Amino acid sequence: MALASKSWSCARRTWYWWWPGTGQATHDLLGRGATVHAVEIGPAIAAKLREALPSPALTVTVGDFEQIDMGEDRFDALFSATAATK
Q1: 23 is a domain residue
Q2: Residue 83 placed within a domain
Q3: How many domains are contained in the chain?
Q4: Is 56 part of a structural domain of the chain?
Q5: Fewer beta carbons below 10 Å: N end or C end of the chain?
Q6: pTM to 2 decimal places
Q7: Would you say 21 and 40 are in contact if contact means Cβ atoms under 8 Å apart?
Q8: In this predicted model, what pLDDT tens digit does every residue of 39-84 receive, in sequence order?
Q9: Using H for helix, E for strand and C for coil, what is the string for the chain?
């Protein structure tokens, strides 16, 4: 999965990630040096994400992204994706 072009590095970027699921793409972002604030609506999936990717660069909030108060935080990118299997 290619999340970043060669001209736009993830390093030192902060991503606001809606519905990160179990962390397949989040793993790639963290591996490229990004800081990720993930908002996952499902508590069980959020727990799996925290367990799979223990990192000080990852913050996981349980809740609906439309209801979360992000305060004065600034992000370089907002992202949401979905995966499908056959």
Answers
A1: yes
A2: no
A3: 1
A4: yes
A5: C
A6: 0.73
A7: yes
A8: 888 899 999 999 999 999 998 989 887 787 776 767 777 777 666 5
A9: CCCCCCCCCCCCCEEEEECCCCCHHHHHHHHCCCEEEEEECCHHHHHHHHHHCCCCCEEEEECCCCCCCCCCCCCCEEEECCCCCC
Whether 2 is covered by a domain: the verdict is no
Domain with 28, as residue range(s), is: 16-35+43-66
| pLDDT, position 21 | 79
Instruction: Give the residues across from 74 on adjacent strands.
Output: none
Tell me which residue of 13, 16, 66, 67 sits closest to 37, measured CA to CA.
Answer: 16
Pairing of strands 14-18, 77-80: parallel
State pLDDT tens for residues 50-61: 999 999 999 898
Structure tokens at 48: 């799996």
